[in-house]
Amino acid sequence: FPVDLVDDDLVKALEMMVMTRRLDVEATALQRHGELGLWPPLLGQEATQAGAWLALREGDQVFPTYREQGLAHAMGVSLADI
Prior knowledge:
The protein is an all-alpha fold. Helices cover about 50% and strands about 0% of the residues. Helix 1 (about 5-30) crosses helix 2 (about 45-55).
C-alpha cells in the first residue's frame, strides 16, 4: 500500500536517524570503557528503523529487538530504559 508522507514526516525521520546514530556512538563508547555490559551496535541501521517507523499506523504494535534501539525510542521507550 502507498505511504503518504509530508515534509514534517521526513524531517522527523531524519531527526530519528540522527538521534539513533548519536545514541549508538555514546553507548558503544560506554561499552568499550566497561561502563555498559552489552550493546549491539547499530551503525548503518538507522534508515531501516526510520522507514519502519514511517510505515506504522495508529494502533500498530512493534516489538523492537536486537539493533532496533532507535525504533524503540521513537515508540516512546526512554533512552535510560534502552
